[in-house]
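Example for tutorial group B:
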């Protein structure tokens, strides 16, 4: 019912990400149903359980008019509620939400799905912290997971992704803030405030992004040419760079991530998929499903 209603609104970026997540969870649950693993759904930026987007991008200081065009839509399921509808059900649901108000709403999921209430764990904390703790105590022999990383902006730290990748058993869908965050923090003249540099380092897990996105040039001044850095990092270059970073820690990364744009076709996020399990059979199966989903219009 929900999906049909969502389609009436014609495939905005919020619907696209949720449709793709839903398709993957559905396929994953079917593939895993006869296996004896403990199966976890982990939503580290869970929101309220309902579909919404916020008018501001926390921590970056940018006003995100592109996001503001999506009003909270209490009528439709967000990622957490979609995951709870998947059958066979997951054995555990880990929901993390930092905002007090959103968290209070999220907790209502327990009453709304009482049959799964005992399987749900809620954390009102930083998603990075919860994930790093969870991964430190992960038993790869008998646990398998799907993780959804759906921040508004630049909140996912690279060290968190490293911790996730080390479990070798968590598949990840991540909304990488290519347009809404990274591109805006790369001014044309290369003069990047220290705070932005630090944030970019934390998201990429390295500082060599600067060489990837800027090159030295000489610009004509009044009397002579002056040395300057100029931006060469297009959206494509940013996307390729991030995919290459993911490939350094995950056994397989989908080659066809989806660019999510606003109604004016401005890229906001890049929806990426990384498979966690290095076994050839598992990673090929995960990749085949994810790439198929990403290919669908
Ligand atoms: C895009 S929304 C999530 C939407 C949700 N996935 C859905 O489909 O319904 C991002 C959420 O992350 C929360 N958030 C922001 N920073 C966070 C952090 N460091 N840790 C956990 N949650 C955070 C925000 O309050 C917001 O509710």
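The residue assignment follows.
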């Amino acid at each position: 019912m929900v999906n049909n209603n969502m389609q009436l609104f014609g495939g905005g970026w919020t619907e696209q990400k949720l449709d793709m997540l839903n398709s993957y969870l559905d396929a994953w649950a079917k593939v895993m149903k006869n296996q004896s693993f403990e199966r976890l759904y982990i939503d580290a930026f869970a929101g309220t359980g309902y579909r919404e987007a916020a008018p501001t991008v926390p921590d970056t200081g940018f006003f995100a008019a592109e996001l503001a065009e999506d009003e909270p839509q209490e009528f439709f399921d967000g990622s957490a509620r979609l995951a709870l509808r998947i059958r066979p059900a997951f054995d555990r649901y880990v929901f993390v939400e930092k905002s007090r108000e959103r968290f209070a709403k999220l907790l209502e999921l327990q009453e709304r799905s009482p049959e799964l209430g005992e399987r749900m764990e809620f954390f009102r904390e930083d998603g990075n912290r919860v994930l790093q703790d969870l991964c430190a105590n992960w038993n790869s022999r008998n646990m398998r997971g799907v993780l959804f990383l759906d921040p508004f902006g630049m909140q996912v730290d690279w060290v968190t992704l490293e911790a996730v990748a080390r479990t070798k058993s968590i598949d990840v869908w991540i909304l990488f803030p290519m347009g809404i965050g990274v591109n805006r923090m790369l001014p044309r003249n290369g003069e990047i405030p220290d705070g932005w540099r630090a944030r970019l380092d934390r998201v990429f897990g390295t500082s060599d992004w600067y060489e990837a996105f800027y090159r030295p040039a000489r610009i004509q001044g009044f009397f002579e040419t002056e040395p300057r850095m100029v931006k060469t990092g297009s959206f494509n270059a940013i996307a390729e760079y991030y995919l290459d970073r993911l490939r350094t820690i995950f056994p397989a990364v989908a080659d066809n991530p989806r660019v999510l744009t606003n109604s004016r076709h401005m890229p906001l996020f890049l929806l990426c998929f990384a498979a966690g399990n290095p076994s050839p059979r598992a990673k090929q199966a995960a990749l085949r499903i994810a790439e198929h989903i990403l290919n669908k219009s």
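Residues 18, 45-47, 51, 58, 78-79, 96-99, 102, 126-127, 150-152, 155 surround S-adenosylmethionine (CB under 6 Å). Compare this with the pattern of hydrophobic and polar residues in the output above.
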